Amino acid sequence: MLVVPRHDGWIGTLILLAGEAIRRIEALNRAQRAERLAIESQGNAILGRYMLDMRPSVNNALTSVLGNADLLLLEPGLVFAGCRDQIQTIHTMALRLNEIMQRFSSLATEMRAGEKDSQAETDPAAAGLMTGD
After folding, report:
1. Count of CA atoms in the C-beta half-sphere (13 A) of 129
2. How many alpha carbons fall within 13 Å on the CB side of residue 93?
3. CB-based contacts of 103: which residues, under 8 Å, 6+ apart?
4. What distance in Å separates the CA atoms of residue 119 and residue 121, rounded to the nearest whole number?
5. What is the per-residue pLDDT across 96-122, written as a single tens digit (0 to 9) for each?
6. Are residues 94 and 66 in contact, defined by beta-carbon separation less than 8 angstroms?
7. CA-CA distance, 115 to 121, in Å (whole number)?
8. Rounded percentage of the chain residues whose pLDDT exceeds 70
9. Which residues of the chain are modeled with pLDDT < 70?
């Protein structure tokens, strides 16, 4: 506990102390928010890496689904009309998933390019800051 003795201008001192306390509380709140955002970003990064790692497996499964749906749709006499509609829906949704996976591929390419740019900016040799000793 801080005691402010009464003297000329003690109210001004008290106001300054209150202002400093408010600034410290605001700084603490900003720091806590930044920490929460960093934890959330780290979780998103882990999820993103997992999704990129799983991309080949998902693409393989999609290729199989699309190929089999295509084969079934090429032979209309092998399937009942109701089944044919369901197979067409499966085919359409697999194509949609394939488009999403293509976006992941584009994102992965952009991320790699961004990482290379970032490394080039922080690498002294790449930035031309080495003296050659």
Report:
1. 7
2. 8
3. none
4. 5
5. 998 988 888 787 777 777 778 878 887
6. yes
7. 10
8. 88
9. 1, 4-5, 124-133
What are the structural domain ranges in the chain? Answer: 12-121
Q: Which residue has the tokens 């201008």?
A: 9
- What HEC string does 39-95 produce? HHHHHHHHHHHHHHHHHHHHHHHHHHHHHHHHHHHHCHHHCCHHHHHHHHHHHHHHH
CB 58 within 8 A of CB 103: no
Q: Which residue has the tokens 């008290």?
A: 14
Longest dimension (CA), the chain: 101
Q: Give the pLDDT confidence score for residue 133 in this predicted structure.
A: 46
Buried b (16+ CB within 10 A) or exposed e, 72-93: beeeeeeeeeeeeeebeebbee
CB 88 within 8 A of CB 73: yes
- CA Rg value for the chain: 30
Residue 77: C-alpha distances to residues 7, 68, 83 (Å): 101, 15, 11
